[in-house]
């Protein structure tokens, strides 16, 4: 069957609780030849014995990564996979009502992307040669956000067709934006308003930085991908000299942009004020995280709420106005 040249690609970083659920559903879906699972330096390594007893599952691990990098991780997972077609499914996703005929059809010029909420937009079904024709994901992008938009834009620029999968084609485990962005181990409790605000600000900062990075340094098939070497039978480590690096001036500008965007969104301060305030007070990110001090938390829980009272009041009037129309 032609659909059986399809590789399902999943990368997991501290998402074992989701992976153990979705891997069962992927294993029950017959229209693929392998499920390539790449453990991206999870604190607790993914245990093969906990995954389904399905010979199509291949588990590999990259060691030594301290921050989530979707673009590098999925590019390497694609490199390790074998199928002529690729179905990218994050650790919280599975093929739900995905029409098998789409997987069996020739898709060399058509790229199918997920549609709807809860992370479906980042999932796709694409021919390997199509993915490789645009150089895969842009490895200069960091953090969370804009990676799928950048990939779509480059596919369109090369005259490939973008289509949307039906909403119910991809199933997703619903979870908070804090779980999606933080990359810490998943918790049972729902995220607080503070954690939601923190994660939303981080996503906004990295997505904005990635948008500018993609404009500064467009990714093409001529850019070299990161390389990895074996450090164990199913383990890999990145060759540090192969990792893409932006020019120092561009890196510094992106760092300033992330700093202004994050603190402006998190503390609800005008960006001009963030720009003028001392860097020691509102520092830049380090290794993908912003250092949150006690005074930031105090401001968030006290003065921020006071300053936003007029906005909340106006929002209430807006809601009342709609009722009386």
Task: Describe what this molecule looks like in 3D.
- The chain has helices at residues 16-27, 70-80, 100-104, 128-133, 147-157, 177-182, 193-216, 248-267, 271-276, 294-301, 303-307, 309-323, and strands spanning 6-12, 34-40, 57-63, 85-88, 93-95, 110-113, 124-127, 161-164, 170-172, 228-232, 235-238.
- It has 325 residues and is of the alpha/beta class.
- The chain has a 9-stranded mixed beta sheet, with helices on both faces.
- The radius of gyration is 21 Å and the shape is globular.
Chain-wise SSE layout:
Elements: E1 6-12, H1 16-27, E2 34-40, E3 57-63, H2 70-80, E4 85-88, E5 93-95, H3 100-104, E6 110-113, E7 124-127, H4 128-133, H5 147-157, E8 161-164, E9 170-172, H6 177-182, H7 193-216, E10 228-232, E11 235-238, H8 248-267, H9 271-276, H10 294-301, H11 303-307, H12 309-323
Parallel strand pairs: 1-2, 1-4, 2-3, 3-11, 6-8
Antiparallel strand pairs: 4-7, 5-9, 6-7, 10-11
Helix pairs in contact: 7-8
